[in-house]
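[job 0412] stage=fold_complex status=start
inputs:
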Amino acid sequence: MVTSVGQDGQSDGSQRAVTLLDLARAAGVSRTTASNAFNRPDQLSPKLRARVLEIADKMGYAGPNPMARMLRTGRAGSIGVVFGKSLTYGFTDPTSIAFLKGVASVCEKEGASLLILPETGEAQVGNAIQGAAVDGFIVYCMHYLTAVNDAVAARQLPSVAVSAPETMPMSTIDIDDRSAAREAAAHLIGLGHRRFGVLALDVLGDGYDGPLRIDQMAKLECTPSVDRYRGYRDALAAAGLQDTDLQAFEVSGNSEDQARKAAFKLLSQRPRPTAILAMSDRLAVGALLAATDLGLDVPGDLSVVGFDDIPLAKAVTPALTTVHQPLEEKGAAAARLVFHPPKGRPRHLILPTELVVRDSTGLAPDAP
Amino acid sequence: MVTSVGQDGQSDGSQRAVTLLDLARAAGVSRTTASNAFNRPDQLSPKLRARVLEIADKMGYAGPNPMARMLRTGRAGSIGVVFGKSLTYGFTDPTSIAFLKGVASVCEKEGASLLILPETGEAQVGNAIQGAAVDGFIVYCMHYLTAVNDAVAARQLPSVAVSAPETMPMSTIDIDDRSAAREAAAHLIGLGHRRFGVLALDVLGDGYDGPLRIDQMAKLECTPSVDRYRGYRDALAAAGLQDTDLQAFEVSGNSEDQARKAAFKLLSQRPRPTAILAMSDRLAVGALLAATDLGLDVPGDLSVVGFDDIPLAKAVTPALTTVHQPLEEKGAAAARLVFHPPKGRPRHLILPTELVVRDSTGLAPDAP
DNA sequence: CTGTTAGCGCATTCAA
DNA sequence: TTGAATGCGCTAACAG
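[job 0412] stage=fold_complex status=done
writing structure:
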C-alpha cells in the first residue's frame, strides 16, 4: 500500500512534492490524523503517531508545507525588520547590530524568526514590505522615510518605528536626542570649552559630505541628526554663546574615514575648536584619528565627545566620553511592542540616555 | 457600488480583511485584472491600473496576501540562516556578523529577504527549520550539529552548510583550517619560539572552560577548533617539537574575558610560553589583556597570533598578527550557492586564507 | 485587455 | 480518537 519510497525528491527535482494527503494515504489514516501527528501529539496514540512520523520520514515528507500552514492559520511566526538604508548597512553599523541583537533576543524568547527586508530603493519602496509574510514590523531608519512607514502602516500589522514622528499610526520608540546632546555639550562648556566643532550624521542620507545644510533641516520631520544639533545649540544658548562658535560638518555614512577628513578640516580652522561634538562614536573615533594626524593631544589639546556608547567607545585610546543609549534594549523593547501590541492607541516610548565621562574630555586648553 | 470604505481595519481589528475579490468587486473588474494591477502592470491600461490601485488604497488593501501568494507561486522570496547557537549569538560574534553581511549583500542583489531562525534548542531542534517559508537554507554552526543539518536536508531545498562534513547531502563552504593554523604556528616557530600556549574555541560548544579535552576531540566530525589544533600540532611536528610544548585551554563562548583568564593561567606556568596561538582574534585580544595584567610586553616578551582578522584585529594595540579569512565572502558565496544551486552534485568550496603579520609577533625572547 | 476556472496544501470545524 | 468537508487568498492557464 505504500507508494514508491526513497530518494524521490532527491533524484529528480521536478517530481511533485509529497503532501499531507499522500502521507495520510500511505499511512492508511485520514488527513486530520496525519496533520495531528505533527501539530497535536495529544490527539492520537503515541504509537500511531510514531508510525506516521516514520512513514513521513521514509517518504521524504519534512512536515506540513509552511506556506500552506501560514495561509491557513494566518500566522507567519516571524517579524520583519526594515532598514531605511541598504540591507547590508544593518550589519555594518555597530548601532544597528546592537539593535538587531536586542530584537533577536526577544524573537528567540517568543520562538519567532526574524525577517530582514531589503529596500531596493526609491521607486519600488514597499515592494518587499508588501510581500513579506510576517506578523509585524519594526522600522529602523536613520532617515525618516515616509514611503517606508506608509508601506508598513498599510499592512495593518502591529508595528513599531524607531525615531519616527508620533503622527504615524504606529508605536514608536526613541531616545530624547535633543536633551542628550544638550547634556554632552554642557559637559564641555563646564570644562571651559567655548569653540566647538560638530561632526554630524548626514541630515538627508544622500551621501553628502560638507558643511551642515542648516537650511535643509527645517524640512525634516525627525532625524536624530537634527535633534542632536538642536541640543548642542540649546546648551550653547544657555551658556550665552553664539551659534558661530559651532562649526558643523555632515559626514556621510557614519564613516570613520570621512569623519577623519571632516575633523581635519574642522581642526585646521583658526581659531581652532577646542572640542568636538560627534553625533556617533564612529565619528568621534574619526576625530581622534584626525587629532593624531595633527599631533594634537586628546584630551590635552582637544576634547571629544561621542554618542551611542558602542563597544568600541571604551576600547579605543583614549576611551571616549560619550552619550550612552540603550541600543540593545531599544531593539528588545521594539520587538516586545510588536509581539504584544498595546490595546487602543499606539505607545510612544522614550528610553533613557546617560552621559558617560571617560578619558577623551578635559579642561579646555585655553581655559582661564 | 463601492462597499463601505474608510478606517475599516483600523477601527476594529476583528473585521475580515479586504481580499483581492473584494477589491475586484469594488472596482468593477475581475479578480485577474485586480491581480494584474499589482503583479503585471503591462496587462492592463495604465489608467485602469491607477484606478484599481487607488480604490485598493481607499479600501485599505495593501496588496496581495503574501502567504496566499507564496502558497500559490511556491516561492517565498527569502532564504533562511540557521545558527547552531542562540539567535543572539549571530549578532554578537564579529565573525558571524561579517558572514551575515556577506549573505545580506547577495540577498539585496537578488531582491530577497533574509530570515534568521531561532534554535530553541535540544528537543525541538528543527521546528523552526521545518516551518520556515524560505527558498533555501544556509547553516552556520560553530559546532557541527547533526540534528540541524538533518532538519535542513529534509526540507529538500537548496542548502549550504558552513564547516560541515562533505558527507551531508548539501553544498558546503569552508576554509582550510588545518593548514591555516599550521602556517600561523610555523610563523612563530620561524621566529624562534618553542613553547606555546593555545587558546581554543570550545570543542563541544557546551560552555566548558579549562584544559583542552583532547579525548573528546576524536568524536567530532568537524569543527574549526579541532582542525586548527591539528594544524598547530602539524607545525610543531614538522619542527621536531613535542606535543608537550603546546599547552591548550578551551575558552567558552569566544569571550575576551574568559580568554584573559585562560591566558593568565597559561602565562603563569613555568617555563612560561613565549607565544600564544589563539583560535580567534577575540581570544587573542584576551591574551593581550592578560599580558598587560602580567606586565609582559607584546611582542617583546610574548608573541600572540589570532585567527579571523576581524576589524578589531588592526584596531587593537599592538595590531594583531592573525590569519585572515574572507568572512564576508564566505557569506556571499554561501548565499550565491543557495540562489543558484549547482546542477547535479553539491559543491564544496574552500576559500583561501592568508597569514597577516602585524605587530603582535616578534623574535622569541629566549632565542639564540 | 478581460473574465472563468481550478487548484496550491493545509487546519479546522463537526459528526461519528 | 478518527474522518469528511470546507475554504484561507491567491495566480496561472486559457478562452474570449
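[job 0412] summary: The CA atoms of residues 121 and 321 of chain A lie 36 Å apart.
[job 0412] exit 0
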